Structure formats: structure tokens, C-alpha cells
Protein 1
Amino acid sequence: MKELVEVIAKALVDHPDEVVVTEKKEGKNIRIQLHVAPSDMGKVIGKQGRIAKAIRSVVKAASSKEDLRVDVDID
């Protein structure tokens, strides 16, 4: 899941070298934290959070095959 979020985020931002994705596993729960440059924050969140919601939806669909619960936090 970490790689999926990283690929999506790097495609959206102007500074892909500053994208950092960390993953913490806790049983069937996975917490993914996405860090981007402050100037790219708006591009990752989108108007009214639409892009962030779309990223979470894609990750949720990918994780449902593996019976995992994934939370994506954007910092």
C-alpha cells in the first residue's frame, strides 16, 4: 500500500523528491502517513478534499482484496 500512495502522490506534486511515505502495521490495520512539501499540500488535498478522498478510496479498494484496513493521513 505504501508504494501505491507514493506513486499517486509523486504524480500530483511539483516536488516529487520531497514526498515521504511511512507505513505502520498493527495487525490487520495499516496507518500510512504521507508527507509532502508545504507548497504541494493543496495539490494533494484538492478542492474540498476531493483528491485526498480519491486517494483514500483507491487505497481502500486495493486493501479490500487483502482483508486489511488502511488509514491514510496527509501531513
Protein 2
Amino acid sequence: MTMTIDEQMAYLTKGCVDVVRPAELRQKLERSAASGRPLVVKVGFDPTAPDLHLGHTVVIRKMKHFQELGHRVVFLIGDFTGLIGDPTGRSKTRPPLSPDEIRANADTYRAQIFRLLDPDRTEVAFNSTWLSALGAEGLIRLASRYNVAQMLERRDFRQRFDAGRPIAVHEFLYPLVQAYDSVHLKADVELGGTDQLFNLNVGRDIMPGYGLEAQVVMTVPLLEGLDGVEKMSKSLGNYVGVTEPPDEMFGKLMSISDELMWRYYLLLTDMSEAEIAGLRRSVDEGRRHPKDVKVELARRIVADFHSAEDAARAADTFEARFARKELAVDALPQVVLGLDEPRALSRILVEAGLAASASDAMRKAQQGGVRIDGRRVTDGRERIAREQLPLTLEVGRRAVRLVAG
């Protein structure tokens, strides 16, 4: 991809919240262009959960942008830092992961990131490689480069300190060892979510002490979930998983509001801000219908994680189901239920991934959004027995086929 430095700056900073600092990023890009040496761009992931959702991919897409411009992208799996537990946003000490949990989650991450990144141009690294070798003496020397007053500038720590809630000493080590990753990799740029700004800036702070130029820090926003309110989260049920089937992914994306659609265009596509603004004008001026533009968004995202053919089929299925009122039952995702005795609909909705909790399921039913074989059900306590299966269960624009196991 050939771009001027101005075009690169616009492309790389699109959707970013913090860029510390833009002038330094420009200088690094100019130097890279002149020398032919690619920048080292680092992103760290603690393997705290086995699956990624679209919220995680906002920063991965930014990695892709650097990769497209020829830079060296390091996908850093924090198998060492995962043993500490990131204190970011925590009101109490986070329980650390076991080594087996970390290895299992890391393997899943590696498979999933290559749905966006080029595997031949992505360096995957584990920070235990150098942090375990640092040893006790090295860790003490590293800890000497920061003081407690600096650590308490972090809001999470300050709030817990002021409230008299405990802060374990090892939690202070987390931002320091994350910063040391940047030292070891000689990072030019580190990317992360806005909640990671403190940790990323610690890397900037300590790198000059190791004779290195400070890294540029770039943060991306935390993506709102399908509800448009809360951060995308599996526990809240407002997420789109990157491994979900094309039809499921497409249907979920079509459920977002017209306003949230523009946020997703900005953070989940490679379109430029100018292109997105032009698209929005076409809707505002009545030249395009919002639904058609949302279909285009859903097709783009499904194609990124599956294929263009899968995206086209998902769009056709969606159109048949909701525009022509045709429901291709055989094509629906199946949920196998072992119903030894009748079970409440609210529980089944949670098991089928159509509600985040029993209370959420009850609320969806009360609001009239739940159908069984086309029949609206408003009481989440209604019980489903094994002999009633198979059934088609719909919640809003999502549907599954319940079958007996």
C-alpha cells in the first residue's frame, strides 16, 4: 500500500482516542520511509478468555493497518503478565490465571487473530521468554525505575488506596513488566485500549533509561456492544464473537441502531473517515436507506472473518427471513438440549446464547421479543418439554433450532 506521510497519519490515527505524540509518530514514519526500516508495532494480549469478540478486534484492525504499510507487527501474548493479572479497572485484586489456562487461551487467540492479520507477516511472541529470564535481581532493578507516587497516579490504584481497599505489591509490577516488554522489543509504537493508557505510558517513561527512544502510544476506544450502551462483553450478552457462524454474525449486526452503525463503520472497517462521512451524508440526504447501508456494513464485517461468499449468503438468508418472511429452518444454528424434564424458557434462552442471564431472558419475553415456532411468548417461566422438540426459537432478529440431545 503506497501512501504519503499525511495519508499514513490519517489512516493510522483513524478512530484513535489518544496519540502520544502525533509529531513523534510522524517523525518515526518519515524516518522509516527514508531508511526502509519498518517500525516495530507492539500489542499485548493477556489470554484471560478463550474467545475474541469484535470489541477485541478494534486494536487488531489497527495492527492490520500498520501491517499493510509494511511495518513489523508483534502480537504479544502475555503469558507471564497473565500470571500477575492486569489490575486495570479492578476494584480488587484480580485472581491470576493458571499456566494451563493461559496456554489453552493463547492457542485459541493465535488461531483467531489470523482472521484479520496476515500470518506470514505477524510475529507472535510470549513475554515469558524474556521476563522469566529477568530473574529476581533484574525484577528488583526494574522496580527501582518507578516509585509509589507515580503508581498512585493511576486512578484504579488511587481509588482503592483512598477507600482503604488492599493493593497487592505484585499488582504494581504489572505495568512495569508490560513496559519492559517494550524495552525488550525496542518498540516504536504500542497500541491498546483507552483503559491501558497508564500502562502504555509507563513504557514511554522507562525506555529512555535503557537508551531507547520513547515509544509512541496509541489507544483505541472500547467498543459499545449491540445495545449501544455497555462495553461489548460476553458476560453481558451484547457481543459478536469472531468465530460465530456467518448468519449469526450478520443477524446480530443488523440488530444495532442506525446511530451505532456509524461507530461500527469507524472502528470495524478499513474505510477512511472521508468515505464514512460521505456515506453518512447520503443517508442524511435521503439518497440511501439506513437499512441498505447497515447491510453493507454487516457484509463487510462478515467477509473479514469468513469470506465474501459467506457474507453474500448471510445477506440473502437475512433478506428472505425478514423481508420476505421466509425462515429457512434447516439452515438455522442448532442448539442441542438434554431435556430430562421440562425446563423454563428463560433458562433455555441463556443456554442457547440468546440472553445474558435469566433476568435478561425474562425481560426479553415480557417485551414481546421471543417467539417459539412463530408464536409470541411473553412469560419466561413457560416450560419446554423434550417431546415438543424440535422447535424454532426466535429472539428479535436472531433464531436457533432447538433439538433433543
